[in-house]
Automatic annotation (TrEMBL):
Xref: NCBIfam families: tRNA uracil 4-sulfurtransferase ThiI
Catalytic activity: [ThiI sulfur-carrier protein]-S-sulfanyl-L-cysteine + a uridine in tRNA + 2 reduced [2Fe-2S]-[ferredoxin] + ATP + H(+) = [ThiI sulfur-carrier protein]-L-cysteine + a 4-thiouridine in tRNA + 2 oxidized [2Fe-2S]-[ferredoxin] + AMP + diphosphate; [ThiS sulfur-carrier protein]-C-terminal Gly-Gly-AMP + S-sulfanyl-L-cysteinyl-[cysteine desulfurase] + AH2 = [ThiS sulfur-carrier protein]-C-terminal-Gly-aminoethanethioate + L-cysteinyl-[cysteine desulfurase] + A + AMP + 2 H(+)
Organism: Metabacillus rhizolycopersici
Entry EC no(s): 2.8.1.4
Residues annotated for ATP binding in this entry: L183, L184, H208, F209, R265, G287, Q296
Protein name from the UniProt record: Probable tRNA sulfurtransferase
Signal peptide span: none
HAMAP family xref list: ThiI (MF_00021)
This protein's pathway: Cofactor biosynthesis; thiamine diphosphate biosynthesis
Gene of this entry: thiI
């Protein structure tokens, strides 16, 4: 069967009422971005479908990329013909012949989206099925469990014939839910938090805290690679590398050891929030899971959150580690995250971090240092990288 189109179906977008066109247009643009290296493709959007005209392009790679795009419920390789019964029957016969093996069974499932078409659904099923039976030798009909289910969708502009559905990623088109800043550490959790936020339509910018010479260039490379993996789900991502050495050294010198972790997280949130405001971004995202480590108890969150009134999205808050690891493996970030290069969150971890820190105490410890000046200096010296699918090879060549 020669496929000349891909037919894309929506999930949640279908419930968006008068705003549906905004979501469809966003999804169409996201698909274009992911398939930008296929300039021959032609895109057409309607209220309930997006059609991609392949124009001779190899569909195998395109199919794999479409599986990762949020907002797609399912999609099918399709062949297109004129909405005229004789042409539909001939195209159906060609499709069945190209796909069938001896002793296969088949079924025709017609959908008459064009209510002006002269035949109803039952008549379409009968005429197409009869034509296939008469012109083949080894095929029989099985309406319950056929080897081939030939779907025929008759629309006013054309008819599309498909035989197999690919499952899409679901969710909402990236960007339809605004933009948030993801705090990406280099561990297992935060990339998963980014992935789940993308699935709900949130576009990402990423911030990473880098503390040379305590953290290496390979740790920085790990974060670039993690960001690159996330581009498969949302297109290019802006990555901000924050110089964090001076702040961490000051915390180690001025704050009691069991409170250094709390103070470090507070400074990270302060910096992220200042950069978020500068970039006109709506929220922050973290990979926190309740109770997983000392800084992720409710008491710690109260003390850390006090530095900002900005909404903080925590997609993993009720997940256990095994659930998070399973998603990390599924999306391709796990193997990168476990590379043995420490980030700034782990290099100064105290032996006995406070699990129930007091807000008034950490505030008092920090009051002896002008952290605001250090925070502003860190934001002003940020290194920003635009990470795309092509960037990994470029950065790998540096090491």
């Amino acid at each position: 069967m020669k496929f000349d189109h891909i037919l894309i179906r929506f999930g949640e977008i279908s419930t968006k009422g008068r705003n549906r066109k905004i979501f469809v247009d966003r999804l169409k643009n996201n698909i274009r971005d992911v398939l930008t290296d296929y300039p021959s493709l032609v895109f057409q959007g309607t209220r309930d479908r997006i059609y991609i005209h392949l124009n001779g392009e190899d569909h195998d790679v395109i199919v794999e990329r479409l599986k990762a795009i949020f907002g797609i419920q399912s999609f099918s390789l399709a062949t297109k013909c004129e909405s005229e019964i004789t042409k539909i029957k001939e195209q159906a016969l060609q499709a069945i012949k190209s796909l069938s093996q001896p002793n296969d069974t088949f079924k025709v499932t017609a959908k008459r989206a064009d209510k002006q078409f002269p035949l109803n659904t039952n008549e379409l099923n009968y005429q197409i099925g009869s034509h296939v039976l008469i012109n083949t030798e080894d095929l029989t009909v099985d309406v319950k469990n056929p080897t081939i289910n030939l779907r025929v969708e008759v629309r006013s502009e054309a008819t599309y014939l498909t035989c197999y559905d690919y499952k899409g990623a679901g969710g909402l088109p990236v960007g339809s839910g605004g933009k948030a800043m993801l705090l990406l550490s280099g561990g297992i959790d935060s990339p998963v938090a980014g992935y789940l936020s993308l699935k709900r339509g949130v576009a990402l910018e990423v911030i990473h805290f880098f503390s040379p010479p305590y953290t290496s260039e390979r740790a920085k490379q790990k974060v670039i690679d993690l960001t690159k993996e996330l581009t498969a789900f949302g297109g290019k991502i802006k990555l901000h590398i924050i110089p964090f050495t001076a702040i961490q050294e000051k915390i180690q010198a001025q704050v009691p050891e069991n409170y250094t972790m709390t103070s470090t997280r507070r400074m990270m949130l302060k910096i992220a929030d200042e950069l978020r405001e500068k970039q006109q971004i709506l929220a922050l995202i973290t990979g926190e899971s309740l109770g997983q480590v000392a800084s992720q108890t409710l008491e710690s969150m109260v003390a850390i959150n006090d530095v900002t009134s900005t909404p903080i999205i925590r997609p993993l808050i009720t997940m256990d580690k095994e659930e998070i690891i399973d998603i990390a493996k599924k999306i391709g970030t796990h193997e990168i995250s476990i590379r043995p290069y420490e980030d700034c969150c782990t290099i100064f971890t105290p032996a006995s971090p406070k699990t129930k820190p007091k807000l008034e105490k950490v505030s008092r410890f920090e009051s002896y240092v002008d952290f605001d000046e250090l925070v502003t200096d860190a934001v002003n010296n940020v290194e920003t990288i635009i990470v795309t699918k092509e960037k990994r090879d470029e950065f790998n060549s540096l090491f």
